[in-house]
Amino acid sequence: MAKPLVAIVGRPNVGKSMLFNKLTGQRTSIVEDTPGVTRDRIYGTCEWCGRTFSLVDTGGIEPGTDSDMLKFMRRQAEIGIELADAIIMVADVRSGVTAADQDVAAMLRKSGKPVALAVNKCDSTGLVNPDAFEFYSLGIGDLFETSAVHGHGTGDLLDWVLENIPDVEDEDDDDDVIKVAIVGKPNVGKSSLLNRILGEERVIVSDVAGTTRDAIDSYFENETGKYCFIDTAGMRRKSKVDDAIEKYSNMRSISAIDRADVCLILIDANDGVTEQDTKIAGLVHEAGKAAIIVVNKWDAVADKETNTMRDMEAKIRSGLSYMLYAPVIFISALTG
Fold first, then answer.
1. Packing angle, helices 275-287 and 251-259, rounded to 10
2. CATH topology of domain 177-330
3. What is the pLDDT of residues 312-330, one digit of tens each?
4. What is the 3-state secondary structure of 108-159?
């Protein structure tokens, strides 16, 4: 089971990235006084009282905007809300409750997820800041006065998070099962490979964007051992239209890599190593997972000669030069 996911949302420039950096203990998010700096989803791991969970810093939600980039950021945040187990909404005590805050709160109330309201920039210690009481009007009951700069109030906020996320400490029931994540860009044959291994049409293969939201687990056992195959949603190529949304949809695949013991990195034999392949392989490499580079659709390569496979392997080694430890195998999921 993947780590629980907590999303930090709110309108632009209320201190979401600063709070994210404070909770994760790392300066991962760029902090800037310009609204709209955080455009992509940035994720990190937070540990509190012996439990860990994933934390996601989203772009600011700017309701009713005409800017394409702000619309994408709003869509990102909506996907983040959908995937999260719990949500922290951040507001700015200095500016009071704004119309944008009310719109964000309305969106969160509809989500049905547990929501905490972090009233940020309460930088003075001691007495309760009277300006914070105004934020009860947003209708989010659990209110915490926080200072992302100094860390005031973050302990109470993290206690609330632990009470509202699933406990996954007993996740490793079966220690002898090897977890294998099948990762790669869309339409590279991940689901076809899983169906071939399982010997059944377990996974519906579709090119419709966003069809596979969750990683699908399939148990498989043979004479060599027990395996749990995790078929992930494709990490899609970025395009002009849905650039930001696509980065957002990768979280499930990233959590699958996090859970896996071994990752099969699928590459299309017709395309070779693309920029997207190097990014996916980089995630596996950074996670420190064992990896096998699987070149699929070898049957579809035309005019194969004696050295075609060797030349192809050399190109893949060149494109993924930091993964020299990973073996390269050539397969066809279609023909087996």
1. 40
2. Rossmann fold (3.40.50)
3. 888 888 888 888 899 999 8
4. HHHHCCCEEEEEECCCCCCCCCHHHHHHHHHCCCEEEECCCCCCCCHHHHHH
- Nearest Cα residue to 16 out of 118, 129, 84, 112: 118
Per-position DSSP letters for 86-122, written without gaps between them: EEEEEEETTT-S-HHHHHHHHHHHHHTS-EEEEEE--
**What is the C-alpha separation between 234 and 222, in angstroms, rounded?**
27
Beta carbons of 53 and 86 less than 8 angstroms apart: no
Angle, vertex CA 288, rays to CA 189 and CA 176, nearest 5:
75
- Every domain of the chain and the residues it spans: 5-164, 177-330
Q: pLDDT-derived band of residue 67, with 50, 70 and 90 as boundaries?
A: low
Which of the four pLDDT bands, split at 50, 70 and 90, describes residue 129? confident
Write the CB contacts of 98 (distance below 8 Å, at least 6 apart in sequence).
11
d(CA 46, CA 52): 6
- The mean of the pLDDT values for the chain is 77
326 vs 252, residue with greater confidence: 326
DSSP code at position 299: G
- Output the pLDDT for position 241: 36
Q: Are 265 and 281 in contact (CB under 8 A)?
A: yes
Do 5-164 and 177-330 show the same overall fold?
yes
- pTM of the predicted model as reported, rounded to 2 decimal places: 0.56
In whole angstroms, what is the distance from residue 225 CA to residue 228 CA? 10
DSSP 222: E
pLDDT in tens, 154-167: 899 999 999 999 88
Report, in angstroms and rounded to the nearest whole number, the Rg of the chain calculated over CA atoms.
Answer: 22
Rounded CA-CA distance 297/172 in Å is 34
Q: What is the DSSP letter of 328?
A: E
> How far is it, in rounded angstroms, from Cα 330 to Cα 336?
11
**CATH class (in words) of the domain with range 5-164:** alpha beta
Residue 264, amino acid: L
